[in-house]
Design goal:
This protein is α+β, with helices and mostly antiparallel strands. The chain contains four helices and five strands. The longest helix has 19 residues.
Length: 172
């Protein structure tokens, strides 16, 4: 894989990686949730999220790639990417023609390893998988209030496709 940042190894994620992915996911969420959008509050415990990830990775309904710094233990991650093949439009169903996409579910990089090209490296692996499956489009959702994330994805060539807008109404 071209442009591999020195000192990192990327492998496909398996069910055994679910605890480490969950751990990094919860730590990243704690880092961003309050200031970005407080509506993103986990509905799952770490134990349930881990079990769900294990099942999805084992079944192949969720794909994943994990990055480790050389010498890191199996329980530690420098970063990960999870994705799924999306066969129909999640917002519009079968209303419009829709070619399958590789939908990037989540990407997290440990704070100590940021700004070293790891998210780009993980995206290279996901992109190569999409090419092998004859999928020509990658898609992801980003919280518009997360300026850092929006800028990072734009830098990697992602462009807005649809803007989902939200308005809160008073509860009775």
């Amino acid at each position: 894989m071209a442009n591999r940042p020195a000192g990192f190894v990327v492998n496909r994620a398996g069910p055994e990686d679910a605890p480490a992915i969950t751990d990094l996911w919860f730590r990243h969420l704690a880092e961003t949730s309050g200031g970005v959008d407080p509506t993103f509050t986990p509905a799952l415990t770490a134990q349930k999220k881990t079990a769900r990830l294990k099942r999805a990775l084992a079944a192949g309904t969720l794909l994943g790639w994990i990055a480790r710094a050389e010498g890191q233990s199996r329980l530690q991650l420098a970063g990960y990417l999870t994705a799924r093949v999306q066969l129909d439009d999640p917002l519009f169903g079968d209303t419009f023609e829709y070619e399958p996409v590789l939908y990037i579910v989540d990407v997290d990089v440990e704070e100590a390893y940021r700004r070293r090209g790891l998210s780009s490296l993980l995206m290279q692996h996901a992109s190569e998988h999409a090419r092998r499956q004859r999928i020509s489009t990658l898609e992801l959702a980003v919280v518009v209030r997360d300026d850092r994330a929006v800028a990072a994805w734009k830098k990697q060539g992602f462009e807005p496709r649809v803007s989902v807008m939200r308005r809160t109404v008073a509860k009775r």
